[in-house]
Design a protein that fits this description.
Layout lengths: L8 E10 L7 E10 L2 E7 L9 E6 L3 E5 L1 E2 L19 H12 L4 H17 L2 E8 L9 H12 L2 E8 L18 H15 L8 E7 L7 H14 L3 E5 L3 H11 L3 H7 L7 E5 L5 H10 L2 E4 L1 H6 L7 H7 L3 E3 L13 H11 L11 H15 L17 E5 L11 H7 L5 E6 L2 E5 L2 E2 L4 H21 L1
Parallel strand pairs: 1-4, 1-5, 6-7, 7-8, 8-9, 10-11, 11-12, 12-13
Antiparallel strand pairs: 1-2, 2-3, 5-14, 14-15, 15-16, 16-17
Length: about 450
Amino acid sequence: MAASAEVRRIVIENCAIATVDAGDTEYASGHVVVADNRIESLGAGGAPEGLENVVRRIDATGHLVTPGLVNTHHHFYQWITRGLATDHNLFNWLVALYPTWARIDERMVSAAAQGSLAMMARGGVTTAMDHHYVFPQGSGDLSGAVIRAARGMGVRFTLARGSMDRSEKDGGLPPDFAVETLEGALAATEATVDEHHDPSFGAMTQVAVAPCSPFSVSTELMRQGAELARRKGVRLHTHGSETVEEEQFCKELFGMGPTEYFESTGWLGEDVWMAHCVHMNDSDIAAFARTKTGVAHCPSSNARLAAGIARVPDMLAAGVPVGLGVDGTASNESGELHTELRNALLINRLGAHREAALNARQALRLGTYGGAQVLGRAAEIGSLEPGKLADLVLWKLDTLAHASIADPVTALVFGAAAPVTLSLVGGEPVVENGRLLHVDEDAIARATREEAQRLARIAAQA
């Protein structure tokens, strides 16, 4: 950190604080001092006297400060196909929507990414992630469009550069022109890593290798994708064990269940995280725990598509890293991660563990530190500790929606969606009084509506 005379400080005082550190330290009324892009100090009571170069001092009475939320699974392009196939299970939903998704282009993806990012950022997300795997021929620079949208929003971002090489002619779902060849997918993924991945502390953009799913890619793409990721030193992401049908598919095609298949192709390890993992038996969970393979839990999407209830309490008890994901907004139309805190808690209480499944603080940990673990960034973000990046959120909890709930963490998780008064990413404001600072929300709304209509016209004419 620079010398004291050069540091710009933001001081936040008179707020409740949930640090989500290893000891779940909390302060009923405390302070946070941000120096440039990092947390300098925090604790009970007022900030230390004599701080130099304080450029902003915030009286946060009535607020809770938490780490910024970390989203671990999303498909931004789906923003322009929201509200379709609303009564379908996963397979029928995919069959219904792939003909439309196969017509996306760079302009559509740019607008959809801005819409997806805007809704997350407004709701306290400071680190976003997108698993983009649909690359129709001639559609333009889709990865670049997504990355530019994240940079324009001011949030930290991981692009999971996806791919598919199993089309209709191979027994897959996407049209032939909407998938890549094995060689093309690997080359494009490596080029994306080379151009955009930043491995440094505090990076704003990182890239992961992310073939779509066992039933949409070849075994060679899975195996060579894992080799590519490890050669480049980046993380690996895919969908896993989302439905009962996926397990049947793997057994019929590969002679083994999804977890065994993943292990056989090099897809278990502390550099890997899977989306969903709804249908996991005890041995599957043990394999994930043994290898420290992470899970992106997407409770609203799992419910929307009737996929089932993931065994999150059992995963956590075994030591599996678990974070939260919005998933694509064609299966979670709200597109807001802070609602997933509540839904994770409530849906898991419908499972075998009932009221003991998750509590409010465990849900908050899933959405913050758990997500940082899954993305491989727990040393930088996910908890409020001196030296970590100043990615944090001030939640307003003194309005009618929360005023009679004494415990602020309970209010945040169990209560209605709390307004975001301030969101910082690396000490820089992204949201202020519920409004995004770097983009025009109304313009984004218009653009996404227009692109959704354009996509619907193109798909109808196909």
